[in-house]
Amino acid sequence: MACLSKISEDGHFVVYANPIFIQRPYELQDGATLIFEVIEIEATALKKVVGAIDSFVVDSQAFVGILEELLPVQSATGEMFGRSMLRGKIFIKNLLLEEQTNTLN
User: Fold this and answer.
1) Which one of 45, 54, 61, 79 has the minimum C-beta count within 10 Å?
2) CB of 56 within 8 A of CB of 90?
3) What are phi and psi of 57, to 5 degrees?
4) Is 25 exposed, middle or buried (0-12, 13-18, 19+ CB in 10 A)?
């Protein structure tokens, strides 16, 4: 489990979804795709940024990416929680260094 946040205009982290369930071993690196599942009722803010370039934070690593899709999925995680789930895919355009997170806007 992880938390998916964004970096606000004033440099604070704002939670997009918590928890998210990352679906495969991953490395946060330029050009990678992060695939995750999220409980649908926890994804309200994420639904608003599908297709948009945004700043994200996962595991204390900030990056600029595009939430390419957020689609319904049948999953063992959803069955475990008894909830509808969505699968998201974020294309990571580039990682941000700590000093870059203060100059996003």
Assistant:
1) 79
2) yes
3) -135, 130
4) exposed
Domain ranges of the chain: 2-103
Burial class (CB in 10 A: 0-12, 13-18, 19+), 30: exposed
Of 2.30.110, 2.60.40, 2.60.120, 3.90.550, the CATH number of 2-103 is 2.30.110
Return the SS3 of 101.
Answer: helix
- What is the Cα gyration radius of the chain? 13
- Do residues 50 and 67 make contact, with C-beta atoms less than 8 angstroms apart? yes
Q: What digits encode the pLDDT tens for the residues 44-95?
A: 999 999 999 999 999 889 999 999 999 999 988 778 778 899 999 999 999 9
- Tokens 């071993």 map to which residue? 25
